[in-house]
Amino acid sequence: MKEIFFTDLYVNAILLFCILIFSISLSLYILLNDDYNTVLRIISIIIIFFIIYLFLQKETFLPFLGTTYIPYNLFNNEQYPEGSNLSYTIDMADYEDGTKIIYWASNNTGKIIENPYDAYKDFNNSGIAIVKNGKAEVRIFCPDKYKVKKLYTMTLKKHFHYRIIDNKTGFVSPVQTFYIDC
User: Fold this and answer.
1) Do 145 and 111 contact (CB within 8 A), yes or no?
2) Number of neighbours of residue 25 by Cβ within 10 angstroms
3) How many CB atoms lie within 10 A of CB 138?
4) DSSP-derived 3-state class of residue 179
5) CA–CA distance, 116 with 119 (Å, rounded to integer)
6) Quick one: which H or E segment has residue 171?
7) Cα angle 154-12-149, degrees, rounded to a multiple of 5
8) Residue 36 pLDDT > 90, yes or no?
9) Of 6, 126, 149, 177, which cross-links 104 as Cys (Cβ 3.0–4.6 Å)?
10) Whole-number Å distance between alpha carbons of 36 and 131
């Protein structure tokens, strides 16, 4: 299952990249060719701006980070890692009481972890918070820094991620990140 999932992500990213490159190439061709009228050139400029916007969005090539849907009743009770020693409050004044927050952080091993998969292995540093009086309390262990390999290897600062679950619809917000110092 794991390999199939990653294959789907790679195929999606490659196809989307090809479509965006083709679209920007065609728009530039129309823009720079004197055979096309002004209206088509203006439309090409607008399309180029949209493509640039899409390229800059992390959800374009990593769609699982964006908005999704999960049945909200799966997350009924507040839970947190047993023995957690840190508490952070997220301001949720725009959300009604009872809104649920799912959160996760890298594991606490006391060293820099070599990759994100090992950093989050078994999701031992995760939980569910419930909004009360416009605030959500996240309780975790101090997460480790971990390395991410892109064009170069970079070490990410300590942080946790969270998503907000809408109690009425089940829609889940995009992944949000909260950087911490512990």
Assistant:
1) no
2) 10
3) 23
4) strand
5) 5
6) strand 171-172
7) 10
8) no
9) 126
10) 56
With contact defined as beta carbons under 8 Å apart, do 135 and 150 qualify?
no
Q: What is the DSSP string of 125-142?
A: SEEEEE-BTTEEEEEEPP
Distance between CA atoms of 65 and 123, rounded to whole angstroms?
Answer: 17
Residue 2 pLDDT > 60: no
**Structure confidence by residue, pLDDT tens digits, 135-177:** 999 999 999 998 888 767 888 899 999 999 988 888 888 988 9
Q: Which of 7-21, 25-39, 105-119 has the lowest mean pLDDT?
A: 7-21
Structure letter (DSSP) for residue 120: T
* CA dist., res. 73 & res. 60, Å (int): 29
Mean pLDDT value across residues 76-88:
87
Instruction: Using pLDDT thresholds of 50, 70 and 90, give the confidence band for residue 73.
Output: confident
DSSP string, 16-47: HHHHHHHHHHHHHHHHH-TTS-HHHHHHHHHH
Q: For residue 144, what are its two tokens?
A: 């480790």
Give the DSSP letter of residue 74. G
Give pLDDT, residue 1.
Answer: 40
